[in-house]
Amino acid sequence: MALNKSMHPRNRYKDKPPDFAYLASKYPEFQQHVHTNLTGRVGLNFKDPGAVRALTCTLLKEDFGLSIQIPLERLIPTVPLRLNYIHWVEDLTGGPGPGGARRGIDIGTGASCIYPLLGASMNGWSFLATEVDDICFNFAKKNVENNGLSDLIKVVKVPQKTLLMDALKEEPALLYDFCMCNPPFFSNQLEAKGVNSRSSRRAPPSSVNTGGVTEIMAEGGELEFVKRIIHDSLQLRGRLRWYSCMLGKKCSLAPLKEELRKHGVPKVTHSEFCQGRTMRWALAWSFYDDVTVPSPPCKKRKLEKARKPLSFSVLKPTVTLLRAPEGGDPDPSPTELIAGWLEKTLTELKVQHKRVPGEGAEQSLFLTAVENSWVHIRQRRRDQGRQLRELPRAPPAGGSATLHPAQTAQPNQDPPALGSEVTGEGGAEGKEDVPAAAQQEVESRTPPSSPGGVQHFLFKCLLSVREEGAGDVGVQMHWVEGQNRDLMNQLCTYLKNTLHRLASTPPAPPLTSP
């Protein structure tokens, strides 16, 4: 199980992922689903619903003392991700410490009843858990009873499309601290299967998608579902201190926040839940003026990511392959060699640059990129390779071959480039987020000699070269400004791969006379 370092800091799995080998040795029902690869690493097939269910049940038993049963045809929750949500509700309601007993509502609790079971067993919270599906309702009731938590958790069967209003009619005077909801993500079966809803550049899901129709699909998808919760909250207002939900699509967050703003909801916050390649977004709102609103942690992470420079190292053997520039120092330092190579390469790429003062022996260049020249190199290499493959083979002895015009190498063809496949942070290969009109304007004007004087550019950055010891050299690219930071990442990857290719390419044999 790959866990993300940005999980909630109190999540027990953040720094200590589950030990599959230990769990398999202790729980025979889990052991039958694990496998060991050639390196001896124990793994799990997350495409197998039975394996996912075995892991969830085993973790709840081992770490929380909970014994549950889940049918394979209903949603199988992952424990670390649900634990993130529980910890965030703790943050909303004042923490899990002394006096932390709370009363909450779980909208659509599912067969596992996992949120109430975790909240009750960890913090002593009491829950009203609602469910519309008969199978889920029966399993949820049994799971609560089998764990002796019926005094804290009340599971109720509600009609279809019931959210908060109808569920609270029986207890009109009771106040709740929060509500939780994992709404159906999809609006139809095609969307649930990923048709027209998943980017072609995005990796396929790493785990199987289980769940009944009412658990994964709703009219209008999660956006309309949560809007109905917002509508109920506008009528209930102070009956709950915090309303919250977990979203499966980031694109749902902005319109829901706008919906809350439009209705004048005073307190709104959001967060992110991360588990490996799985991302979820949480939204919470309140009508109370005295609640403490947690700051979205994602803002801090994005700022840190934006400030962190891109960097790579050039090892000493690669540095020694570079020649000193003509007319320069006959015995240049490693940083001067790398800086000279970078200047030459940037000139070939038509990236404007100039030397700026650095600290000590550090060499610094100020870069201004006005066109994405490096992204086309890979396609050019492919075209050249295809043309070489189309050249006719040598004829048999005594035979002859006629070259057609299309098979003749062009004398003015560009030489093979030293570029490499460049992939940006977003995973889009060769993607250029530059408007066509702006790109045409950039290509039509003659770039000025000074990088700082460019009026239209893709990005500007500071490139620094410094020694790292033992003859190695470190290169860092610091973002200054521009249209898309991913373009700087592409250029950095191109420079790094070109240097690595230089070190791995054997020298050409000397030419001999026939």
Automatic annotation (TrEMBL):
It holds the Pfam family Methyltransf_10. InterPro entries: METTL16/PsiM, METTL16/RlmF, SAM-dependent_MTases_sf. S-adenosyl-L-methionine binds at residues 82, 108, 131, 182. The keyword Signal does not apply. GO terms for molecular function: mRNA m(6)A methyltransferase activity; RNA binding; U6 snRNA (adenine-(43)-N(6))-methyltransferase activity. One of its GO terms (biological process) is rRNA base methylation. Residues 382-392 have a biased composition (Basic and acidic residues). It comes from the Eukaryota. Residues 381-453 are annotated as: Disordered. SUPFAM superfamilies: S-adenosyl-L-methionine-dependent methyltransferases (SSF53335). Coiled coil: none annotated. RNA N6-methyltransferase that methylates adenosine residues at the N(6) position of a subset of RNAs and is involved in S-adenosyl-L-methionine homeostasis by regulating expression of MAT2A transcripts. Able to N6-methylate a subset of mRNAs and U6 small nuclear RNAs (U6 snRNAs). In contrast to the METTL3-METTL14 heterodimer, only able to methylate a limited number of RNAs: requires both a 5'UACAGAGAA-3' nonamer sequence and a specific RNA structure. Belongs to the methyltransferase superfamily. METTL16/RlmF family. This is U6 small nuclear RNA (adenine-(43)-N(6))-methyltransferase.
